[in-house]
Amino acid sequence: MKRESTGSPIAVGIGYGAWMSDDILALLESSLRLPATARALLASKLLESIADESIDEKAEAEWEAEIERRVADVESGRVQGVPWSTVHSNLEAMISKRRGR
User: Over the stretch 88-98, which tens digit does the pLDDT of each residue have?
Assistant: First the structure.
C-alpha cells in the first residue's frame, strides 16, 4: 500500500516520503542533521552491514580487472581522457539530434 508523504522538507526534497515507513523517515531525518563526519561513518557502517550479503565475487573480480586495464591504458598513453565539457557538449548534441532539434 502506498502511503502519503509526510510533507517533511527533507522527505519531499529527496522524494522518499511516499514509500518510507514513519520509523525509517524519522531515522533519515535525524541522520541528515548529524555532522558530515558522523553521517559518513553511519553510511559506511550501513553499507558494511549489507556488503557481505550483496557482493557478487565474480562481478567484483571482473570490475577490478577492468579498472586495472583502464588505468594501465591511461598510464601507458594508449588512451587519453576527454574533458567533461567536451563529453557534455557531445551528449547534448546527440540528444538534440535524436529529438530532431
Answer: 999 999 999 99
**Beta-carbon count within 10 A of 11 CB:** 18
Burial (CB count within 10 angstroms: exposed 0-12, middle 13-18, buried 19+), residue 8: middle
Does 46 map to a domain?
A: yes
Cα(4)–Cα(31) distance, integer angstroms:
21
Local structure of 83: helix, strand or coil: coil
Q: Which domain holds residue 16?
A: 9-54
Q: Residue 79 has which C-alpha cell? A: 588512451
Selection from 50, 44, 46 nearest residue 24 by Cα: 46
Domain count, the chain: 2
Question: pLDDT digit string (tens) for 12-65?
Answer: 455 555 677 888 989 999 999 999 999 999 999 998 888 767 778 899 899 999
Cell numbers at residue 13, please?
Answer: 526534497
